[in-house]
Design a protein that fits this description.
Blueprint: E1 2-7, E2 10-19, E3 23-30, E4 35-39, H1 44-53, E5 60-62, H2 68-71, H3 74-81, E6 84-88, E7 100-102, E8 107-110, E9 113-119, E10 128-132, E11 135-139, E12 142-143, E13 146-147, H4 155-165, E14 173-176, H5 181-191, H6 196-210, E15 218-219, H7 220-226, H8 228-231, H9 235-246
Parallel strand pairs: 4-5, 5-6, 6-7, 11-14
Antiparallel strand pairs: 1-2, 2-3, 3-4, 8-9, 9-10, 10-11, 12-13, 14-15
Helix pairs in contact: 1-3, 4-9, 5-6
This protein binds zinc ion.
Zinc ion (ZN) is lined by residues 65, 67, 123, 140.
Pathway: Secondary metabolite metabolism; methylglyoxal degradation; (R)-lactate from methylglyoxal: step 2/2
GO molecular function: hydrolase activity
Organism: Sphingomonas humi
């Protein structure tokens, strides 16, 4: 599956690679520059095979946070391609192979495009997102209908991170790292059984999953409409929702 999107004069193609049990690894390809980046290669073999099948060669690794299901494949990718690794400086000691440490506000060239780095703590304390014009690679911060668990950060931090992502243009395409959409919307539908946007989205997600299709990427507009975590008006309501989701079965 691919998503073509204009980025200025360039066309960046984004490919989705299912990996591990429910991870997605995203590839960004700039044909004009002959450049391919991989985001969060939790499985190196999947990333390398996915690129090779498209005739692409990975030369850049982009890491959102240190968790092994996002980073364990880095050594294999680097060994095969000599790609350089960009990721959160604050988590340098927690994952292998970081060449270029990043902090909020830094810029990263991705082919002919420029990504901006946003620090979006909550799931981990050093978690970053890569923001390109029209595209946001958000790791485990924002999911379709959900958000990451608070392994290291506070509800207030995650609420602020989601609210910051909500300031992106509505049409921004959002690339989370997990296929959690169905369980997320089942939870949201239980929380808000009369919410039309949640019910509509649950129906769309159920149809996609019963066809075996990915539900991602999503958009900022969709998450602002139907993701109660993103709609939470304050950190207290966000914290209540997050705690309820953590114990939802
Ligand atoms: Zn994670």
């Amino acid at each position: 599956m691919g998503v073509d999107a204009e980025y200025g004069r360039l066309v960046i193609e984004v490919a989705l690679l299912p990996a591990l049990s429910d991870n997605y690894i995203w590839l960004l390809h700039d044909a004009e520059a002959g450049h391919t980046a991989v985001v969060d290669p939790g499985d190196g073999a999947v990333a390398l095979k996915g690129a090779a099948e498209r005739g692409w060669t990975i030369d850049q690794v982009m890491v959102t946070h240190w968790h092994p299901d996002h980073t364990a494949g880095i050594p294999a990718v680097v060994a095969a391609t000599r790609a350089k690794v960009w990721g959160p400086e604050a988590e340098r000691d927690k994952f292998p192979g970081l060449d270029h440490g990043l902090a909020d506000g830094d810029g990263v060239e991705v082919g002919g495009a420029q990504a901006r780095v946003w620090h979006v703590p909550g799931h981990t304390l050093g978690h970053i997102a890569f923001i390109l014009d029209g595209h946001a690679f958000v790791g485990d911060t924002l999911f379709a209908g959900g958000c990451g668990r608070l392994f290291e950060g506070t509800p207030a931090q995650m609420h602020a991170s989601l609210q910051r992502l909500a300031t992106l243009p509505d049409e921004t395409i959002v690339y989370p790292a997990h296929e959690y959409s169905l369980s997320n919307y089942r939870f949201l539908a239980a929380q808000a059984p009369d919410d039309a946007a949640v019910q509509r989205r649950l129906g769309e997600i159920e149809a996609l999953r019963s066809d075996g299709k990915p539900t991602l990427p999503t958009t900022i507009a969709e998450e602002k409409a139907s993701n109660l975590f993103m709609r939470a008006p304050d950190a207290a309501e966000f914290a209540r929702l997050r705690a309820a989701k953590d114990s939802f079965r």
